[in-house]
Amino acid sequence: MSLNGTFVMQKLMANMLSGLLAAPFMASGCVGTTYAPVSGKVTYNDAPLAGAQVLFQPVGGQGGVAAGVGSFAKTDSEGRFKLEASTATPTAGAVPGRHQVRIALPPAKGAVGQQDSDAANAGGKPVAQATNPVPAEYNEKSTLTFDVPPGGTQSADFALKGPPLPGGR
Amino acid sequence: MQSRSSFPFRRRDAFTLIELLVVIAIIAVLIGLLVPAVQKVREAANRMQCANNLKQIGLACQSHHDSKGTFPPGGITEGYCCATQSKTNWAIEILPFIEMDSIYKRYDQNSFNEAAANQFVREQPIKTYTCPSDASAGGNILTRPASGPGSGLNYMPGSYRAVSGRANITAPLGWWDNGEGLALPATYKGAMHTVWAAQGLIPERMSNIIDGTSNTLLVGEYQTKNTTNRRTFWAYAYTSYASSSVHPASHTYLNDFARCVAISAQQGLDNRPCRRAFGSFHSGGSNWAVCDGSVRFIPDTVDMNMLSNMATMSGGEVVNIN
Fold first, then answer.
1. How many CB pairs below 8 A link A and B?
2. What's the pLDDT at B192?
3. Residue A96 sits at the chain B interface (C-beta within 8 Å)
4. pLDDT of B114-129, one tens digit each?
5. How far apart are CA B111 and CA B160, in angstroms?
6. What are the sequence ranges of the domains in chain B?
7. Across residues B301-321, what is the average pLDDT?
8. B321 pLDDT band (50/70/90 cuts)?
9. Would the CB atoms of B83 and A53 count as touching at under 8 Å?
């Protein structure tokens, strides 16, 4: 009985100790999710795709919940990008695992619809918007996927093909 | 009787300093364990109260459907741009069904939302529309919204926004909280989109929700820790102050308008996706009212494609969120 009692006490103390150790981590909310550094290059018809939106959305598992939030980047003049996670505090990288990848060209400045923009539109009519020229299978209806390894990668490369873009690409 | 000084371990009627410190240390440890637990319980209670508000709102929308044959309009804005005044919105229309009929009767349907006649309603605090966890910047006081014909008027903040539909990640950009949504596929429409009869945008019926009422979101939360004038204003019918759309990227499911704008800018987009964001101060996610009258807690790490699909009535997508 007394032996059992000692054992229970030890277990209790061990629990309390682990609780104490875990408490600060839980309070700061940084349990679990780690983001691994991811960078790569986007080409379109073998030429670098500059200024493209790159979005990584971790694919949801059971119940549609993913391991972390999505990540984003914009490609530079050589088509290179480095992901940043869409967390409240800036965090580099993407959560390891399978992602759906979407790549698009953002609307050119001034080509956006004007309704509900703060600059008043005197005409009172919607402005016709140019649509994104990158084929929909790479963005709105993306079939691109990428598996982010636990240690991250520097070769998240995407070679897109499609009709020539305005501007001769 | 022995001499006191000759006995080294004599008993005294007091604690030593060491004993006292040990006791204080133990008490400190116990408090340290207890206080976070109390805070967590408080937040859990607030989250539950918030879910209860959404339950009331969801049921009120059902009651509206029962008595008027349709869900309430997300908002009525008949025109294309910034100076276009609005009529009513969903939060005003369900007032009679949350026992706020006295306030509803003060809303003049023949005047615009921004008219002087409707000042009383614009400035009313409604407890059911306020999440107890909502720690939005600026507090719960009358505030002037950032844009639209009501930007010079005071509105009372709220915590909840109708789900007007889903958006694209890039051009053509548009949102179903105004006529700009017409640039999008019709399958992107949500259960409480903008109403503009001349453009064929009319309030929705239950029978139009072909994805199933339990797979379609009705109302969500939007609260932000900064940018006071971009928070939720429950009675402001103009576009994006009492309605949001799901933009299929995680940065629009954050309670931080400024951070969302920064991320949008890094993708070459302006702040418009962020004006239609969702997000709350609950840890790890937000509450949502669903079209079947239920309430769900959906985590921040939800697959945003799935959340976008849940925002539409007739996408025909597979949704398996639990």
1. 170
2. 95
3. no
4. 999 999 999 999 999 9
5. 24
6. 41-311
7. 83
8. low
9. no
Strand, helix or coil at B195? strand
- The 10s digit of each residue's pLDDT in B220-243 is 999 999 999 999 999 999 989 999
Q: Which residues pair with B297 in a beta bridge?
A: B287
Q: How far is CA B153 from CA A120, B113, B142, B156, in A?
A: 18, 11, 9, 10
* pLDDT tens digits, B67-87: 999 999 999 988 776 788 999
Is pTM beyond 0.90? Reply is no
How many alpha carbons fall within 13 Å on the CB side of residue B290? 17
Q: Which residue of B has its CA nearest to A21?
A: B33
The answer to whether the Cβ–Cβ distance between B82 and A53 falls below 8 Å is no
CA nearest neighbour of A132 among B311, B268, B317, B273: B268
* Among the partner residues A16, A29, A55, nearest to B283 by beta-carbon distance: A29
Burial of residue A89 (CB within 10 Å: 0-12, 13-18, 19+) is exposed
Cβ-in-10-Å burial (0-12, 13-18, 19+) of B76 comes to: buried
Q: ipTM above 0.95?
A: no
CB contact under 8 A, B306 and A29: no
Question: Is a pLDDT exceeding 50 seen at residue A117?
Answer: no
Buried b (16+ CB within 10 A) or exposed e, A158-168: bebeeeeeeee
A91 touches chain B (CB under 8 A): no
User: Which is it for strands A39-44 and A158-160: parallel, antiparallel or unpaired?
Assistant: parallel
Per-residue pLDDT at A32: 65
Q: Which of A114, A138, A69, A141 is nearest to B272 (CA)?
A: A114
The band of B171, judged by pLDDT with boundaries at 50, 70 and 90, is: confident
Q: Find chain A residues with C-beta within 8 A of B147's C-beta.
A: 116, 118
List of chain A residues whose C-beta atoms are within 8 Å of the C-beta of residue B178:
115-116
pLDDT band at B216 (very low <50, low <70, confident <90, very high): very high
> Mapped to the 3 state alphabet, what secondary structure does chain A carry?
CHHHHHHHHHHHHHHHHHHHHHHHHHHHCCCCCCCECEEEEEEECCEECCCCEEEEEECCCHHHECCCCCEEEECCCCCEEECEECCCCCEECECCEEEEEEEECCCCCCCCCCCCCCCCCCCCCCCCCCCCCCCHHHCCCCCCEEEECCCCECCCCEEECCCCCCCCC
pLDDT for the residue numbered B278: 96
CB–CB contact B173 A112 (8 Å): yes
